[in-house]
TrEMBL record, chain A:
It is a multi-pass membrane protein. The keyword Transmembrane applies. It comes from Actinomyces respiraculi. This is Carbohydrate ABC transporter permease. The chain crosses the membrane at residues 12-34, 72-98, 110-132, 144-162, 183-205, 242-262. PROSITE patterns: ABC_TM1. GO terms for cellular component: plasma membrane. Belongs to the binding-protein-dependent transport system permease family. It is found in: Cell membrane. The keyword Nucleotide-binding does not apply. Keywords: Cell membrane, Membrane, Transmembrane, Transmembrane helix, Transport. CDD domains: TM_PBP2.
Length: 278, 375
């Protein structure tokens, strides 16, 4: 067997495996779309069939009639975008403070800050709710966005990158009279674009899929995000699966474009971890 | 009012109450808000502690104990306004009572029943069951109905509103003993649950569910004709009737004696602990649970009324046999009284019961684990 033959066989195997994996990942989406076009009564009773007795396009009109779906999708985009921007800002500033500023107990405080990573969200929900209630911020966009912008994950990730940067750039800038914010803005941010965007992308995904906190803090349907909105199809007497699947299909569209737009950053996010932040 | 209201069907339910009250009191107004039915109990505990919390809230009898911390007892108001609680289904009042205090007045009383497909029974040459149904007869019917890829009964991965719990209560077992302690390992409870498991693992009269199925898979099997029967609550009557029409039959739960005891579930209206004007809130509740309003909602929405004198509203247009089965179980019903960690118990049962249905674990084994972890 020639080297070329071996290379071709290896390519065929690789592509076959990749195709299988792609099909496995795409299948739930295909099933979701197929279910969105089945009458509700047939979503669970049509067995392995991709089609129902008719194409139920009315599921899509029902989905928008039963819930303020447009508003719900816009809420998710607004909350996730603002949350991601705030998380990037807070993470960058705190990472800079924990790396470059000198103050007492800095490293001890950082370890304490990192310790918050082990606290599950369920533990934080009640104290957070009580705090927001006292501030009169329950049932507001602020309550949806603010609490989870101050996590330690982003600060930790960016801090590791700052640590790997040579101090000489900053020292040169400081000799030229630059202060901390100027150094951060003109020297560090251009070098930290990749990790900051990775933090933004992960944060966007977290906000987009958050359920428990929005459930607790939102009282009006007008403030609901997509995970809450989809629950509006479930009632005491069952779930309207057809319209729900139609709503899921529609709510996936913005995230599809966002992921396509940020694909290179997502890839960086995966590879950054693999190389230990260098 | 704080309640489960996010779906269209739920909104229609509460609007039916408002409309019914307005027929005699046009000035009556009631705003309702809240999350979906599935998220209600998670949300209620925080929402009802807020300074702007709604005055009235709803609760299921089986979960009243869980909400006692955010609800006000109604006994003094019941006494003050001379409300006669004996007109309500006694099992529902018992379900709404915690430590001797009534926390809500019920609007429905729904005994778990067996729905069956009349056409399937007739095609198999079987006599339709109604108010008397022995387990022996049930097994014989299931055998005749299981053929050509179709099964006799559809089972869900749940404890209640389903074969396991319904069989246990029908035979006189309850989740709590006389002293209020969890008693999942009593011999009747264990043998009844095992009977439900055997339907799939031994007899092959049912398909074993998986833990992730939810209710819909079994319900879909029943409405599509893949299963000839299902055990569920009467709140599913309209949904099933929409699919099966005149072919929808209702009978009592099969039991050893043939005279099943019904396990009655339902919901009611209570008052939030922080409500600033509990008297005004109670007056509104009195309007919502007046016999006239309960009867009208039973007629328009198909809720089995908590006031038995209003059953005719619910029975309108339904076959006599179906109504008889519901009446029989209401008369011989017991409340689903549960401990505060009931949600943990039923969630664990959902996780473990597929092993029982597949025959890899016995009911005694699963229930022993549940009793030890939650008892």
């Amino acid at each position: 067997m020639t080297l070329e033959h071996r290379s071709n066989i290896s390519k065929i195997i690789s592509y076959s495996l990749l195709t299988l994996i792609a099909v496995a990942f795409l299948f739930p989406f295909a099933w979701m779309l197929a279910s969105s076009l089945k009458p509700t009564s047939e979503v669970f009773s049509s067995g392995a069939s991709f089609t129902g007795s008719r194409l139920a396009w009315d599921n899509y009109t029902e989905a928008t009639r039963q819930t303020p779906l447009g508003r719900i999708i816009l809420n998710s985009i607004l909350v996730s975008t603002c949350g991601a921007l705030l998380t990037m800002t807070v993470s960058l500033l705190s990472a800079y403070a924990f790396t470059r500023l000198r103050f007492r107990f800095r490293d001890h405080l950082f370890i304490l800050f990192l310790g918050t990573l082990v606290l599950p969200q369920e533990v934080l929900v009640i104290p957070l709710y009580i705090g927001f209630q006292h501030l009169g911020l329950v049932n507001s966009y602020t309550a949806l966005i603010l609490p989870f912008a101050f996590g330690a994950f982003g600060a930790f990730l960016i801090r590791q990158f700052i640590l790997s940067l040579p101090l000489e750039f900053e020292e040169a800038a400081r000799i030229d009279g630059a202060g901390d914010l100027k150094i951060l803005w003109h020297i560090l941010i251009p070098l930290l674009k990749a990790p900051v965007l990775v933090v933004g992308v992960f944060s966007f995904i977290d906000y987009w899929s958050a359920f428990l906190w929005p459930l607790i803090v939102v009282n009006d349907a007008d403030l609901a995000t997509i995970p809450l909105g989809l629950q509006m199809f479930s009632g005491e007497r069952g779930t309207d699966w057809g319209p729900m699947m139609a709503a899921v299909s529609m709510s996936v569209i913005p995230s599809f474009f966002i992921v396509a737009f940020l694909q290179s950053q997502l890839e960086k996010g995966v590879t950054l971890g693999a190389f230990g932040g260098r | 009012m704080f309640t489960w209201v996010s779906s269209e069907s739920d909104r229609a339910q509460w609007q039916a109450f408002v409309d019914a009250v307005r027929e005699t009191d046009p000035s009556f107004n009631l705003d309702f808000s809240g999350p979906s039915y599935n998220d209600y109990y998670t949300k209620a505990k925080t929402r009802m502690t807020a300074s702007d919390a709604p005055g009235i809230l709803t609760t299921q009898a089986a979960r009243t104990k869980e909400l006692v911390g955010i609800m006000a007892p109604l006994d003094d108001l019941i006494k003050k306004h001379g409300v006669d609680t004996s007109v309500f289904n006694s099992a529902m009042i018992k379900g709404m009572t915690v430590d001797g205090k009534i926390y809500a007045l019920p609007y429905d009383a729904e005994p778990c029943v067996m729905f069956y497909n009349r056409q399937s029974f007739t095609a198999a040459g079987l006599t339709e069951p109604t108010t008397g149904y022995t387990y022996e007869q049930f097994l014989s019917d299931m055998k005749a109905l299981t053929a050509d890829g179709k099964v006799g009964i559809a089972v869900k991965p749940n404890l209640m509103d389903n074969a396991p719990g319904a069989f246990a209560y029908a035979n006189g077992a309850t989740a709590l003993d006389d002293k209020g302690k969890l008693s999942l390992t009593s011999s009747t409870f264990v043998s009844s649950i095992q009977k439900a498991f055997d339907l799939a693992s031994v007899n092959g009269y049912a398909k074993a569910p998986s833990a992730s199925d939810g209710d819909e898979v079994a319900q879909g099997a029943f409405t599509s004709g893949q299963a000839a029967s299902i055990i569920d609550g009467p709140w599913m009557y309209a949904t099933f009737a929409e699919q099966l029409g005149e072919n929808l039959g209702v009978c009592v739960i099969p039991s050893d004696s043939g005279q099943a005891i019904g396990v009655i579930q339902g919901s009611g209206f209570g008052i939030g602990k922080n409500c600033p004007d509990k008297d005004a809130a109670f007056k509104n509740i009195m309007k919502l649970v007046s016999p006239d309003v309960i009867g009208k909602v039973a007629r328009t929405r198909g809720t089995v009324p908590s006031i038995i004198s209003q059953i005719d509203g619910w029975a309108e247009g339904k076959p006599a046999g179906n109504v008889d089965a519901i009446k029989f179980l209401l008369d011989r019903g017991t409340a689903l009284v549960t401990p505060t960690n009931w949600n943990q118990i039923v969630t664990s049962f959902t996780q473990y019961c597929p092993e029982g249905y597949r025959g890899s674990r016995t009911a005694a084994d699963i229930l022993k684990d549940l009793q030890e972890s939650a008892g």
